Amino acid sequence: MELIFAAALCSVAVSILLKLAKQHGFSPIHLIAWNYATASILCFLWFKPDLQHVSLSNTPWLLIIALGVLLPSVFLLLAKSLQTAGILKTEIAQRLSVVLSLAAAYFLFQEQFNTLKIFGVVFGIAAVLCILWSNRDDASSSNKGMLYLAAVWLGYACVDVLLKYTTSLGVQFSVALNLMFVCAFICSMSYLFIQHHHFGAVKNIGAGLILGLLNFANIALYVKAHMLLKDTPAIVFAGMNILVVVFGVLAGLIFFKEKLKTASSIGLLLGVISMLCLAYAMSA
């Protein structure tokens, strides 16, 4: 359980760092770009992917490149959502992207659904709609906040579906993840050079490398927890998602003085119910 707790803390720490970045003169796009340098190196050292035997002809490069472009794009949308909608709502929307992934699994991968899983998806979608609805009365940033929240929800679901599809083609998870990070780093650096003609100030590079450490630690600890608790994946799934939402809500309320509106509270409750339903469905 300590691994799940630590993974959840790292996940929320990533969001806190991104939210604070712009307020303290850092460039989120530079941080996101350099985060993939750390993530690529640590992924290679931690998971030890067999990159030497990657086949140029059999590897789904279009999918890998698509993920390499999508990852930093969604990360940037996450940063925008944190600024406009707040960490509280963004964390819930990000975690509930799993319901779209499951819906895609049903339609694209013919995954079997039981009653609990159906309830989990329905409650999850209702939770996100409540979170989006709670943003309607915010001043000038309301439309942008709703747009970024929806984009985070959709974006993370797309990443999950594409990664699942890539591994279903025979590419090992560790290889696919490492190739994604390397591709994301190359794409991000290319964008920075074209748009800004430089790769960032020293402070942005340093903060980006720290962001990459936290980002990768979140993934590595979560995967490690699944390996150690392979007979009870529902505990890992529910524990991780619910802890991230709880920590995100606490961070929003305590550190950033965000308000938990009625619609947000209902969305939070529905989100927790959704995750519990999905967790029980996994163990059924």
TrEMBL record:
EamA domain ranges (all copies): 3-132
Keyword tags: Membrane, Transmembrane, Transmembrane helix
Transmembrane segments: 29-47, 59-80, 92-109, 116-134, 146-163, 175-193, 205-223, 235-256, 262-282
GO cellular component terms given for this protein: membrane
Origin superkingdom: Bacteria
Protein name, per record: EamA family transporter
Lineage of the species this protein comes from: Bacteria, Pseudomonadati, Pseudomonadota, Gammaproteobacteria, Moraxellales
